[in-house]
Records
---
Amino acid sequence: MSFYINEKTGADEAGAGTQEKPFQTPAFALYSAETDAEPKLFVFKEADNEYQEISASALKKARKGCDGLKKKAAKAKEQELKKQQQQADNAAKQMAALNIKIEEDKALPAAQKARINQSYSKVGERVKVSGWIHRLRSNKKVVFIVLRDGSGFLQSVLTGDLAIAQQTLDLTIESTVTLYGTVTKVPEGKSAPGGVELVVDYYEIVGLAPSGDDAFTNKIAEGADPSLLLDQRHLTLRGETLSAVMKVRASLMKSIRRVFEEESLTEVTPPCMVQTQVEGGSTLFKLDYYGEEAYLTQSSQLYLETCLPALGDVYCIQESFRAEKSHTRRHLSEYTHIEAELAFLTFDDLLDHIERVICKTVQYILEDPVAGPLVKQLNPDFVAPQYPFKRLEYKDAIEWLKEHGIKNEEGEEFQFGDDIAEAAERKMTDTIGVPILLTKFPAEIKSFYMPRCKDDNRVTESVDVLMPTVGEITGGSMRINTEEELLAGFKREGIDPKAYYWFIDQRKYGTCPHGGYGLGTERILAWLCDRFTVRDCSLYPRFSGRCKP
Ligand code: 4AD
């Protein structure tokens, strides 16, 4: 047999080895011979324009090349066979998996319903726990699920038929399931929430979450744009960090209510739809109230003042609304305002009370078995504030800012009378590094209701509590308690006193020295949980450009 080779015009796979359709390489020509006898090879020589028998050295090289081709072909065949085998195995496994019926073994002791945090103390017992699949991992024979139900996380393990059943292979993150199994202690040296693991013997699917493009992890990819994450807030809330902040938030509410109880304050719920302003007209949200102009409340202070003669010292936890144009990390359009009002006290009494409320509230949060560890986790360096706080008068703060070369909003040296805006306030607070009660602000930069100090008519009995990393978390003051002085305050701020008749009446029908304050819930949380912005401390934050979902 003879084969013809033309290295220029020939082709190995498509060639036939004839003079008309020559092969390209001598190695392929040898490889394509189907008999044991080695074919004769003729190679086209361009110089002589004819086919000539292959030289001995070229033939030797061709034989080597032919061996290589044979080995390659054998390997490819082997792989193909393996692949076919695997496909057959997979198909068999899938059939088997499809045929596995997950059924409860009725011979087992009845499972007791438990929340995850209750299951931690049920070592050795058979329980049933419902929740969301927070994490899902499998190797060939074992499936690990971390279940979440809001009360905690439960590491769970599925083995045997449970692990290979098609139903299990189809599970997705955020699907809801009820797991049945025995609570076991995790082995020495291993850790899991609550120190336990659920060895699952049966489970039911309550609702399967989507897979593929719509899968939960695609919806809220890590590192996604904050605005996209806010569009998916209903899903991001399920994350470990945000849900931890919300739990600390719940504990803050509970703890501060406990402190108010200890301080003998009564809780009230003033209206949110009002026709008066408290903190300046520029941040009022207006609304059409059956044809009349009304506003969403900026602060419940004025209403709290009216409760003093009826109920004594009072507080409320209520949403306040501010049409803040500025996009800062500590301003929201709607925030949860914790406000208190106290009668028959001095400015110093008020400052002492504020310190006590803040310190005790933080103490109770840290002592809370749920929130305490979460604060540690979110803010490992957090140091609980100690009273008394550093007290700094506004006039001394201005000197401090000057000495430290910190400029005002116009980029000039601070002057008495300047507002200490966010950037300068934060720099000062962070440099001093401890909680500060900043007191006695000039009347002109504060609200109409603040009384002037007896010893310095330029300034008022007012206070801001400043915390490192966030700045102002609380604003408060004594209140003007004579009608005449209050009317002068309205005049200074250009407010028509007509709508405030009920507030003015407090000064007519038995006036008293009184004062109060408002705490920004989200700001306290940003400080306590070390969050960059108050937006991370609100369930569904509202700020300009965002009123959904
Ligand atoms: O200093 P502010 O404006 O004081 C009042 O509203 C008083 N009438 C309260 C009172 O005496 N009852 O607000 C009080 C606190 C601030 O210290 C801050 O923590 C928070 O409310 N706050 C805001 N939090 C988030 N977003 C905003 N836009 C806020 N404005 C004020």
---
Amino acid sequence: MKKVIGADRGSWIRVERESDFPVQNVPFGIFSSEGRSARAATRIGDTVIDLHALAMAGLLDGLGINPSVFSHDTLNPLIGLGKALCRELRCRIAEIFDQDNPVLRDLPGKHAGILFPVREVKMLMPVQVGDYTDFYSSIEHATNVGIMFRDPANALLPNWKHLPVGYHGRSSSIVVSGTDIHRPKGQTKADTAEFPEFGPSRQVDFELEMAFITCRKTDLGQSVSTAEAEDHIFGMVIFNDLSARDIQKWEYVPLGPFLAKNFGSVISPWIVTLDALEPFRMPGPPQDPPVLPYLQFEGDHNFDIRLDVFIQPDGQPEQRVCHSNYKYMYWNLVQQLAHQTVNGCNINPGDMYGSGTISGPTPDSFGSMLEIAWKGTRPVKMADGTERKFINDNDSIIMRGYCIKEGLRIGFGEVRTRILKERE
Ligand code: MN
């Protein structure tokens, strides 16, 4: 079945040249507008399209999708219908909004209740995240951390090139872009101190990540192969995995990340489908030594997604601190899902899988303040004269991501969060 909406297709909805959301994107999200409950939507340009209203107007008839699927406050029921049906839905949406299709374009009073300016709606969490895993799949990031905290000569631990290292995170604290997060409190211990102290973290950091979301249920005991994995992956969002480095440093031995990682992780509101990302596939870095058979794969599963991180101090302009790319990932998403399930661990629609911090080869492409300011030894100079080793109170962190090729731009919009002082 055709996955890609033709690159030459235009829409009767206005799309600015720099927009992340041409008619070729058709992402999915959940929104609310004044006086109406949350429901499913897509977006073209700066226009949010109410899919429940579109279905009630009969425009999605014949797809075999019950309109009630669009009236939930999560996309879990919709994406749980599977990729084949969602693919047909995307194609139908592209048809309805094709510049030459008069059906809705020329319908009297057509906009009322179906189309909303993006500035007039509130975007909500797109899925209910049942389970959340965070990987550690960027070789540049893992190497940087290894150099900083262990041994430059043996920066990668012996397992790193043999399996996609990960941990099970917490889903309750995954929130949508626009949610402010209070500085976490917890235990920290200075290297020179005998005992730990309690107080607000002094080292709040971001982690630039992408996350993929699964759309199929598997049974306990079942494994998903690398060949099958993309049938289970609905799409991706940008993921800011906020981290408290000082809490992390003290608590993580021997069981790994805990309270340093679950005080808020922030995602972009629109799930961009793998189908929309199809034109931007590319090979990943070579994997040497060769991986075990269950991690081998056919085809290209990296994507050329340009990623930027900005810090915006209160009342100041935003300042870019990182320019990275998802294409650097050493372990790709089909390997991650195959590894997640190789032992028979079951998965569900709405589960989320973070890539791990996405660092590139050069210092301007490092995906966390820990690396950018190199453990505080290379502070970043801000336009207002202040310096940043980590994130200050009232700083906003903004991440944006998009693909571009031969004039076609498909993007994720942004994920934005402000760090507030600790809660009293
Ligand atoms: Mn992370």
